[in-house]
Amino acid sequence: MTTEVLWISAAEISALNIPMQDIMERVEAGFASVGRGETEMPAKIGIHPRENCFIHAMPCYVGGEDLAGIKCISGYPPNPAKGHPYITGLMVLCDPATGLPLAVMDAAWITAWRTGAASGVYARHFGNQDSASVALIGTGVQARTNLLAMKEVFPRLDTVFCQDISDEAMARFINDMQPLLPKAEFVACPDIPAAVGDADVLITCTPIVEAPERPVARSMIKPDCLAIAVDYDAALNADVFAGGHFTCDNFNQYTWTREQGGYFRNGYPGPADIDADMGEICSGAKEGLRAGQRGAVLMGIASHDVMTAALVHEKALAAGIGTEVKL
Ligand SMILES: NC(=O)c1ccc[n+]([C@@H]2O[C@H](COP(=O)([O-])OP(=O)(O)OC[C@H]3O[C@@H](n4cnc5c(N)ncnc54)[C@H](O)[C@@H]3O)[C@@H](O)[C@H]2O)c1
After folding, report:
1. Ligand 1 site: residues with CB under 6 angstroms?
2. Is 287 exposed, middle or buried (0-12, 13-18, 19+ CB in 10 A)?
3. How far does the centroid of ligand 1 lie from the alpha carbon of residue 206, in Å?
4. What are the strands, taking DSSP E only, across 144-289?
5. Closest C-alpha among 22, 12, 89 to residue 58
6. 238-269 pLDDT, tens digit each
7. Which residues form a coiled coil (predicted)?
């Protein structure tokens, strides 16, 4: 027997022009499914062939939606200097009835967009609707999709504070993103305090490292700033979360990574300090909070990938995009 698998490249996915709102809806449905206990989603496991580098395996069965898949995703900080992206990988969408692979696709696009979407879903439940400014620390791929998601959530967004160790990366970011938010003022900031001091929303997107410097301290930000770490514990000092409302995307994955993975130590919230995970929020078991000290660590969970890959697969089939290859 031969089986055909649909190969969908990064350029093909990108050409589908899937709106951020559609991805946010799928990511939210995935969160809700996790919250209702319908998914099988072990914490992501990884190998570390080089210092500060990871290759993660992220399987998930989203029961209510009957979708299954697994992502193999690498993060290599030295890659940009070699002309490769920091994040690369493959996503395999499987038929839950037979286990056969249905589609194999680029996972960098999926990772970029579903991660921005997850921040958007968090902000949808926890954001103050009057928020007008966002600070982005680390203006690479993630900063772009996270900003696109904030644009969907905060209609009054008019100021984007940017900070990056590379002036060139910051200039590229502003050049790429200004046309997508034409009315917003983009401010290239010389250092972190200048970037975060007046921000209503703060999102950190720097490389995850084994010995984090955590340069953003609570004293630098507004008391009611909505703080989102996309980069594990690399940028936000533990005091950013201390005493406030703390959310993670998934209780099991956060606590497993804290206990087994070596991240989120030295003052980061422990299991008893987690006020909610996004599964609880999106399934309606707990409610968001729109004022006061609020922060989240959104590590990225495999339900996002399966839900987003299924959306890509549907759109690719409808548009006749992709290449059938034999197994
Ligand atoms: N939570 C998730 O679901 C998820 C998903 C994908 C990526 N990530 C993480 O998001 C982070 C960003 O990924 P990316 O794909 O945008 O990477 P990227 O390489 O495109 O961008 C990272 C940017 O950070 C800048 N930078 C490095 N050190 C810095 C510092 N100390 N201060 C300010 N800027 C600094 C770099 O110059 C670069 O522009 C990584 O940690 C990655 O692992 C998280």
Report:
1. 75, 80, 86-87, 111, 115, 137-142, 163-166, 169, 205-208, 230-231, 234, 298-300
2. exposed
3. 3
4. 159-163, 185-188, 201-204, 226-229, 245-248, 276-277
5. 89
6. 999 999 999 999 999 999 999 988 899 989 99
7. none
Q: Tell me the CB-side half-sphere exposure of residue 91, using CA atoms within 13 A.
A: 30
Q: 140: CA distance to ligand 1 center in Å?
A: 6
Q: What is the pTM of this model?
A: 0.97
Taking every pair of Cα atoms in the chain, the longest distance, rounded to a whole number of angstroms, is 64
Q: What structural domains and CATH numbers belong to the chain?
A: 4-110+303-326 (3.30.1780.10), 128-301 (3.40.50.720)
**Two tokens, residue 266:** 């030295």
For residue 293, give both structure tokens: 């000290």
Angle at 315 between CA 149 and CA 124, to 5 degrees: 20
Atom of ligand 1 nearest to the CA of 143: 16
Which runs of consecutive H residues, i.e. helices, occur in 215-275?
251-259
